[in-house]
Design goal:
By secondary structure, this protein is of the alpha/beta class. The protein is 35% helix and 22% strand. A nine-stranded mixed beta sheet has the order 13-12-14-15-23-22-21-18-19, sandwiched between helices. A seven-stranded parallel beta sheet has the order 5-2-6-1-7-10-11, with helices on both faces. Strand 3 and strand 4 form a beta hairpin. The longest helix has 14 residues. The protein is globular and about 75 Å long. It starts with 5 loop residues before the first strand and ends with a helix. The protein binds glutamine.
Length: 536
Amino acid sequence: MSNSTKYVFVTGGVTSSLGKGIISASLAKLLQARGYSTTIQKLDPYINIDPGTLNPYEHGECFVTDDGAETDLDLGHYERFLNVRTSQANSVTTGRIYQSVIDKERRGDYLGKTVQVIPHITDEIKERIQILGKNGEYDIVITEIGGTIGDIESLPYVEAVRQMMWEEENNCIVIHLTLVPYLAAAGELKTKPTQHSVKQLLEFGVQPDILVCRTEHELDLNIRRKIAKFCNVSMNAVIESRDASTIYDVPLLMQEEELDKVVLEKLQLTTRTAPNLDSWKDFITNFKNPETEVNIGLIGKYVELKDSYKSISEAFIHAGVSNKCRVNVKWIHSEKINDDNIVDELKGLDGILVAPGFGSRGISGKIQSIKYARENNVPFFGICLGMQCAVIEYARNVLGWADAHSTEIAEDSKYPVIDIMEEQKKVSDKGGTMRLGAYKCQLKSTSKAYLAYNTEVINERHRHRYEFNDKYLADFEKAGMIATGKNPDTGLVEIIEIPSHPWFVGAQFHPEYKSTVACPHPLFVAFVKAAIENKK
Ligand code: GLN
């Protein structure tokens, strides 16, 4: 491995949900803004090979990278903050570590040896961490360890960190996130949980270099001194992390606390220039001072857990800012929409988005919402299953094929307008076998998509098994629904539009995965713009 690569480990203590992902992304942003090439990696202690098989209620959205990795939603934050692509290597689970060690054992790579957690599992973990530093592409690798210190399942990761701290003393530091709770009855902030959490890390042989303390109140000098003294860190390494009104404020808050400076100091790197965050600050100013606002309905079946649609709601923030507009997302449960309440549910919306998904639950509400958008000239954006539902709706209500459906839901439909992809027919395993990752798409120059992207060939990420059934394309186009984007190699229909409608676009891919603060996604930007015009 390259000696010059530095490693920052981020662990969490006291409780989950302290925002390790956002702190990691914010630190990376600050280091990047100082000219250091930085990447972030997430190590997840669960036994699934990847979160692709997890129900969104378990872990929120499954994020997909260009190279087709199904990953934790934190990778989405990393990409949105850094505007740098992540890959398979940025997401590791215990399942994957064990799979690889067991494969090696079966191949005979350890022949004669007893295969154990230490050293074999920990070596595999270290290898996965160091792989990102190997080709010299990154100056700094930030590795976030999922879970909370003390969890049985994250022990091998903490041990791997301990070993790396020992083997590469000057190249590694540990940032530990903790909670400093406020006890209202005592009127005090309490440091004991932080002390205990650091003690626990010490039991595993790891002394954190920096403590990021999540708190609802200011950490005064006394508290900072106390934490520093009892946890063996310097005063300037006690970093206050207050609740922010938006996650995009966190890099600036961390800059005020000088987290980046302390990190560089401890890694023995020069601070170089002051971070240039001008465009980031402009983004926040525009976000907080919109000139107009629109209401957009997000129709989905996982709306109780908003993390299930994380990238979509963030893409709306980016697209809103670039239109100087606040996008109020109205979360609408597709299962709750029916003939009686549809007008009440959807009236007053300036745009309607139908979300991705799997299976039959909530499908009819999605189809009804699309009919409403189409007939009432409300801007419509369908993503993946949302696009497929738009095709089904058009077949039923415009082409008059009442029985039309997707074979995912009705295998014996007379009009299977959405059908399983040829290469998917022989697939039986569920994990990692969808059409995943980035594929090219050729746009028709007369389309709304082309107007949005202003280029003819785009590259977008996919996660699906079913597709538009080409057999019916001529019928659809004759009736006014046009395929405006196709895969240039396979001819698969990737985008459908209704040109006679103000803005009706369905995408088989997931544009939300590629939207970042620096590059809001063109289709989201165009959709929000259409919603603003519709409102007028
Ligand atoms: N269930 C659909 C398919 O597999 C859509 C998937 C999605 O929305 N991501 O094709």
